[in-house]
Every structure is written in C-alpha cells, then in structure tokens.
Amino acid sequence: MTAEIIYGSKIAEEIREKLKADVKELEKKNIHPGLTVVIVGDNPASKSYVKFKQRACEKAGIRSSVIELPEETTQGQLLQHVNQLNEDSSVHGILVQLPLPAQIDEKVIIESIAPEKDVDGFHPYNIGRLQTNQDAFVPCTPLGILEMIKKSNIPIKGKHVVVVGRSNIVGKPVGQLFLNENATVTYCHSATENLVHITRQADILIVAVGKAKMIGKDAVKEGAVVVDVGNNYLSDGSLAGDVDFESVKETASYITPVPKGVGPMTITMLLQNTLKAAKQISS
Ligand code: NDP
C-alpha cells in the first residue's frame, strides 16, 4: 500500500480563500478583524514565526500589528501591555509569542489575556470549555489537524486515535478534540512502556514529540492514518518530521508530510480564530 499524502498546504489555501471572502463581508459591516502579536526578546525562531503570522494576516485582509518588547521586560510591564490590548476594541485577537524570557511566568501572562481574545486557545477558560465540549477557542495546531482529517473525509467516530506527546499546546488538546468527535483516544508520552505496541493499534496516529523520524514503519498498523506534527531541523539544515515518511508511507493509508503538512494549517487556524473573535466581539 502507498499512502495518500494529505497536503495541509493545499487545504490551508482553500480555507484562506474562504476566510478572505469572510473578511470582506465583515468589512461591509464596518468590522475590521485585527490581531496583535506581542513578542518579547530576540529569539530568531520566534521572530520568524511572528513574520509568517503577520504575512498570512495581510494576505487574508486581517489587520495585524506586532508589539516588540526587549528581553529584559518585566512581568508587570508585559501585563500592562496585555491589559491595554484587552481594553482596545480594535483588537480582536491577542497572541503572546512563546517562549517568554525566564523572569516572566507564562501561565500568569496566558491567564491575563481576555478569554474572548485568546486566539491561541491557551487560556484555562478555553481549555476548560474544550474539555467540556463547549464552543471554545481551540489551539491552532490541534484544530488544523482535525480540519485536515475532516476535509480528507476520514472517519473519526469509533476509531482508535493514538496521540504520542501530551504537551498543553498540541498533544493534550488534539486528543480532547478527537474525543469530542467520539474517537477512542490513547495518550503516549516519555514514560509510556511498549510504545510501539500501542502505536500499532492506532487507526489514526498523531505524533507530536519533536524527535526526528522516531516513528518508523514497524510502529504503524497497515492502513493507518498518520499525522506528523514534528518540526525538526537536521544538521544539513533540512526539516524532518517525527515520522520516517519514506518508510511509513508504504504502510499507512494517509500521511501528512513535513513540510507542507500540519504547519500551514496551524497559521490558517490562527486566522480563522481571529475572525471568529471579531465576529463574536462585534455581535
Ligand atoms: P513538547 O516538547 O512540549 O512535548 C513533547 C512531548 O513528547 C511530551 O509530552 C513528551 O513526553 C513526549 N515525548 C518525548 N520523548 C518521547 C518518547 N521517546 N516517546 C514518547 N513520547 C515522548 O513539544 P510540542 O508538543 O510543543 O511539539 C512537538 C513537536 O511538534 C515539535 O517538533 C514541535 O516543533 C512541533 N510543532 C509543530 C507545530 C506545527 O505547526 N507544525 C506546532 C507546534 C509544535 P513528556 O510529557 O513525558 O515529557
């Protein structure tokens, strides 16, 4: 069997066209969706992520602005900025780029963002709503993964979804989303025993670990759907996923590539969440 490749890049493009049209409709009602990203310090990876996000906003017609703060910014100063954005009616989405410098407690900052502007979906209010299957801002990568699976017409209900990784931004929420879709969900992590025995039971295997090519053909059931979230830079500068794409594509029925897989969906879901915030705040 050779797997069908799910190009998130292609699905993302279709969704972005639709979002662009939605933005135009909102503009007619004098609603101008706006996202503000706050970045603290000079982390080059964070800076390039922020640029990608800004460019994607521009293309979709969403207003975006970036507040750049120095590395030595205190928690109190950052809180002041977030509070101002919470009060600013022209700002619909607030995103504080992580990681933050050591002197700032990420949890405190995330909890200071108004939940109705929390387009990253990291606020405990939104996490709780997701957990209880209520409408919420859902973290962008998990939401993008669910969209990819749905748009590929892959059945979810009753299927065994195995998630490798339990981070707050990917692993945990993606498992919760699929549970809400009536899948049977198993989480694996660094202390999991017999990992391969468990991953081989997956109908849908979602890998979000951050270890290049750790999932090989032997870890995947024949015909499984494999979603690779990993973003790992190899010594030659190339990008690899957590899944050994070349071997696993011989076993899987569907597989997402890296790059052009989950990554483009993540930013697209940020745009979608910003639009959702603009609609909700303005209604
Ligand atoms: P974290 O480092 O926060 O979490 C990694 C998870 O993997 C942890 O739960 C950890 O377990 C688990 N883990 C580590 N080693 C093993 C192992 N040997 N076997 C099983 N589980 C293991 O990473 P993130 O969730 O933030 O990101 C995961 C990957 O996804 C990274 O490569 C990241 O770059 C990428 N990513 C890609 C995005 C995209 O848009 N494409 C967006 C976000 C992330 P434990 O909890 O026990 O420590």
Describe the structure.
It holds the Pfam family THF_DHG_CYH. Homodimer. This is Bifunctional protein FolD. Its EC number is 1.5.1.5, 3.5.4.9. With 283 residues, the chain is of the alpha/beta class. The chain has 2 domains: 30-114, Leucine Dehydrogenase, chain A, domain 1 (Rossmann fold), CATH 3.40.50.10860; 139-263, NAD(P)-binding Rossmann-like Domain (Rossmann fold, 3-Layer(aba) Sandwich), CATH 3.40.50.720. The protein has helices at residues 8-28, 44-60, 75-87, 106-112, 124-131, 140-151, 171-180, 195-199, 245-248, 262-282; strands at residues 4-5, 34-40, 63-69, 93-96, 160-164, 184-188, 204-207, 225-228, 232-233, 239-240, 254-255. It has a 6-stranded parallel sheet with strand order 1-11-8-7-5-6. The chain has a 3-stranded parallel sheet with strand order 3-2-4, with helices on both faces. The chain starts with a strand and ends with a helix. The protein binds NADPH dihydro-nicotinamide-adenine-dinucleotide phosphate (NDP). NADPH dihydro-nicotinamide-adenine-dinucleotide phosphate (NDP) binds next to α10.
Which terms would index this structure?
2 domains, histidine biosynthesis, 10 helices, three-stranded parallel β-sheet, binds NADPH dihydro-nicotinamide-adenine-dinucleotide phosphate, alpha/beta, Rossmann fold, 283 residues
Concise summary:
The chain has 283 residues and is of the alpha/beta class. The chain is built from 10 helices and 11 strands. A 6-stranded parallel sheet has the order 1-11-8-7-5-6.
The structure class reads alpha/beta
Beginning-to-end CA distance, first to last residue:
50 Å
Instruction: Give me the CATH architecture of the largest domain, please.
Output: 3-Layer(aba) Sandwich
Q: Please summarize the sheet with the most strands.
A: 6 strands, parallel
How many E strands?
A: 11
Please give the radius of gyration in angstroms.
Answer: 19 Å
Name of the top-level CATH class of the largest domain: Alpha Beta
Identify the overall geometry. Answer: globular
What name does CATH use for the topology of the largest domain? Rossmann fold
Strand/helix succession: EHEHEHEHHHEHEHEEEEHEH
List segments where confidence is low: pLDDT < 50 over at least 5 consecutive residues: none
CATH superfamily of the largest domain: NAD(P)-binding Rossmann-like Domain
Subunit structure: Homodimer.
EC number: 1.5.1.5, 3.5.4.9
Function: Catalyzes the oxidation of 5,10-methylenetetrahydrofolate to 5,10-methenyltetrahydrofolate and then the hydrolysis of 5,10-methenyltetrahydrofolate to 10-formyltetrahydrofolate.
Protein name: Bifunctional protein FolD
